[in-house]
């Protein structure tokens, strides 16, 4: 090979090597650029993946809270509906209750009137008995040495003197009243009369108070004879 060809070949190879080196540098820069871009993209994708995971977690938590709130609201709605149903049932029962209440009021009114009549009759009877008692008092107060006193609890005490001729001022007494059953009762008797229960039964049977007073006085007289 002649020297000229060798020189040309050498120049060609140098140019080719230079072009190859330039191309190689460009490829390296391109690869580095791709590598950096891939790294940046991977980092961005990773950050986005983390962000999406957090967002997904938040959405799941929000969805769970919404579900719980919906369940709670559903229960409240069911409770309200049950309350409305109860109110409707009570509303339907109101006419029946009003009828029963009216009947009960009428019964109570009738019962009250009956009790008022009974009380009026009892009061009238009691007044008559007390009137008889006052008449008996006036009849025997002077001639029998009888004195009347009202006790602290509203009873009437019959006090006799001139029973014992040796001690005429000595007092013999008994206390009488009308109970809630409109019967005469003796609360105390001084000195005690043995058959006072029998005398009291006769008094409540025939309501002859004068005879009862005379009978008690005779019992007192018999004690000193």
UniProtKB/TrEMBL annotation:
Signal peptide stretch: none
GO cellular component: Ndc80 complex; nucleus
Keywords linked to the UniProt accession: Cell cycle, Cell division, Centromere, Chromosome, Coiled coil, Kinetochore, Mitosis, Nucleus
Compartment list: Chromosome, Centromere; Nucleus; Chromosome, Centromere, Kinetochore
Classification via Gene3D superfamilies: Chromosome segregation protein Spc25
Chromosome segregation protein Spc25 C-terminal domain location: 152-221
InterPro entries membership: Spc25, Spc25_C
UniProt protein name: Kinetochore protein SPC25
Organism from which the protein derives: Galdieria sulphuraria (Red alga)
């Amino acid at each position: 090979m002649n020297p000229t060809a060798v020189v040309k070949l050498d120049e060609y190879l140098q140019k080719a090597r230079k072009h190859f080196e330039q191309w190689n540098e460009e490829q390296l820069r391109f690869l580095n650029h791709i590598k950096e871009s891939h790294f940046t993209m991977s980092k961005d994708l990773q950050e986005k993946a983390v962000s999406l995971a957090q967002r997904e977690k938040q959405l799941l938590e929000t969805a769970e809270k919404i579900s719980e709130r919906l369940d709670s609201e559903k229960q409240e709605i069911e409770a309200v509906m049950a309350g409305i149903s109860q109110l409707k049932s009570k509303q339907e029962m109101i006419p029946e209750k009003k009828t029963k209440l009216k009947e009960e009021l009428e019964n109570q009114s009738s019962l009250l009137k009956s009790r008022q009549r009974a009380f009026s009759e009892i009061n009238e009877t009691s007044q008559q008995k007390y009137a008889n008692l006052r008449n008996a008092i006036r009849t025997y107060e002077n001639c029998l040495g009888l004195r009347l006193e009202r006790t602290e609890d509203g009873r009437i005490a019959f006090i006799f003197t001139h029973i014992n001729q040796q001690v005429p001022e000595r007092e013999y007494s008994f206390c009488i009243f009308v109970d809630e059953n409109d019967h005469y009762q003796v609360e105390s008797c001084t000195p005690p009369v043995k058959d006072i229960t029998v005398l009291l039964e006769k008094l409540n049977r025939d309501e002859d108070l004068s005879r009862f007073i005379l009978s008690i006085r005779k019992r007192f007289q018999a004690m000193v004879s």
